[in-house]
Design goal:
This protein has 246 residues and is an alpha/beta fold. It has two domains: 130 residues, D-Maltodextrin-Binding Protein, domain 2, CATH 3.40.190.10; 93 residues, Periplasmic binding protein-like II (D-Maltodextrin-Binding Protein, domain 2). The protein contains eleven helices and eight strands. It has a five-stranded mixed beta sheet, sandwiched between helices. Helix 6 crosses helix 11 and helix 7 crosses helix 8. The radius of gyration is 19 Å and the shape is globular.
Length: 246
């Protein structure tokens, strides 16, 4: 996107800090209220405070799961600096490490987290414990907004329609996920209804204050080099026009 080779991205997670750093892009829709990360532990661990001094696996330090885990620990009054973080690589590597006991807990995403919980591992925290964090949506190059506003509005409308479709046609959505990822129908239904749909914004909106808090946290964690205002990196005016016309 910085080179002008792509016009759109779904990754607000990396798009917002890139916009702060000068890449000419803006967030025009927010699809998810937060990252789909779960803190999953060995079956013997039943409470999150039991992780003090224990080994928690991540893909690597400084990633979204890392900061999401710190938000979780802060919510439960736990000093994250007393957690032993292990950079364990991919989801599959962390699943193997949990299974063989090399890790006491790990941050896992869907559907892996739910599969592990179904196997008897403990769900210590879910996306609801992370709070509002812009994670996925629609990032657009500002040149496209200026030159082809109608196209951007069509992209926005399609994403809003997709969220509505999943919510209103759960059976067909479950059929698709079950076939695509070869999961059991029971597990897929659990994933969709309990986990995924509640994380969707449904209308593409996110409060400017939530985006501002996200940027402030990124600045404090030295992920962006300067303080920035949410208005610099987001433009929901086209979303509002789409919603007004529905």
């Amino acid at each position: 996107m910085a080179a002008g080779e792509l016009d759109y991205s779904a990754s607000t997670d990396s798009g917002l800090p890139a916009a702060v750093q000068g890449v000419p892009i803006k967030a025009v829709l927010f699809a998810m209220k937060g990252p789909p990360f779960y803190l999953v532990s060995q079956p013997r661990i039943k409470k999150i405070n039991e992780l003090l001094g224990k080994k928690v696996g991540l893909s690597r330090l400084g990633t979204s799961p890392y900061y999401a885990s710190r938000r979780i620990f802060r919510k439960f009054g736990i000093d994250a600096d007393k957690i032993t973080y292990i950079q364990a690589g991919s989801n599959s590597n962390r699943v193997m490490a949990l299974t063989n006991g090399s890790l006491d807990a790990s941050m896992l995403s869907l559907p892996t987290a739910r599969v592990m919980i179904e196997k008897g591992f403990t769900e210590l925290a879910s996306p609801r414990d992370i709070g509002l964090v812009p994670h996925a949506g629609l990032i657009v190059r500002t040149a496209i907004i200026e030159k082809n506003r109608q196209q951007v509005k069509k992209m926005i409308a399609s994403l809003v329609d997709a969220m509505e479709y999943m919510a209103n046609n759960k059976a067909k959505t479950i059929d698709y996920i079950t076939a695509k990822w070869k999961l059991s129908r029971e597990l897929t239904e659990h994933l969709l209804i309990r986990d995924f749909l509640p994380m969707l914004t449904m209308d593409g909106r996110m409060a400017q204050q939530s985006v501002q808090e996200h940027l402030d946290t990124q600045y404090q964690n030295k992920l962006i080099s300067r303080k920035a205002q949410a208005g610099e990196v987001m433009d929901l005016s086209m979303l509002e026009e789409v919603l007004a016309g529905k």
